[in-house]
């Protein structure tokens, strides 16, 4: 009879429906504060995220949700457009720095610029005089040459 009992046990085990979704083994042990209702224990609470609780974050999140419902999602600019805008900003900043550097010239630089301007003016005046002499009639040139020779002749005997 002992053989019959064994056969019945194996048959009854095989006929039981198997669970199609086996429960996974629990790797971590359950904490003891769940089972015990001990009033002396301090139960852990989830920490409050200061960013999410801030008013600005909540307003921004609400606005993003509203825009998403309306279909007004934030526009993503193409990468090329972003790069071009960044280059333009950098160029403007560089120009501003150069202008500030020019404004902050030292006394020596200012004095050198003044002298350079004076020299340029003198050169322009000399060019104008030469052009006038070249365009002047022949008799005016001869008269100028005579005056120079007369002045040289009067100065030579004196010295």
From TrEMBL:
Pfam families assigned: DUF1151 (PF06625)
Residue numbers spanned by region Disordered: 1-107
Extent of the signal sequence: none
Keyword terms, alphabetized: Coiled coil
Plastid in keyword set: no
Keyword Lipoprotein: no
Ranges of compositional bias, category Basic and acidic residues: 10-19, 79-107
Protein name: Family with sequence similarity 107 member B
Species whose genome carries this gene: Anas platyrhynchos platyrhynchos
Gene from which the chain derives: FAM107B
């Amino acid at each position: 009879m002992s053989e019959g009992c064994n056969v019945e046990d194996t048959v009854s085990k095989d006929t039981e429906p198997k669970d199609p979704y086996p429960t996974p083994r629990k790797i971590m042990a359950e904490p003891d504060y769940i089972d015990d209702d001990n009033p002396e224990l301090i139960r852990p609470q989830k920490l409050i995220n200061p960013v999410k609780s801030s008013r600005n974050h909540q307003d921004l999140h609400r606005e993003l949700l509203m825009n998403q419902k309306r279909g007004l999602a934030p526009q993503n600019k193409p990468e090329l457009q972003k790069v071009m805008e960044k280059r333009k900003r950098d160029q403007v900043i560089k120009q501003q720095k150069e202008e500030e550097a020019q404004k902050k010239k030292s006394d020596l630089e200012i004095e050198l610029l003044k002298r350079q301007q004076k020299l340029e003016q003198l050169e322009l005046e000399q060019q104008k005089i030469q052009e006038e002499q070249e365009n002047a009639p022949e008799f005016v040139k001869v008269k100028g040459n005579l005056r120079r020779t007369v002045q040289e002749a009067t100065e030579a005997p004196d010295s």
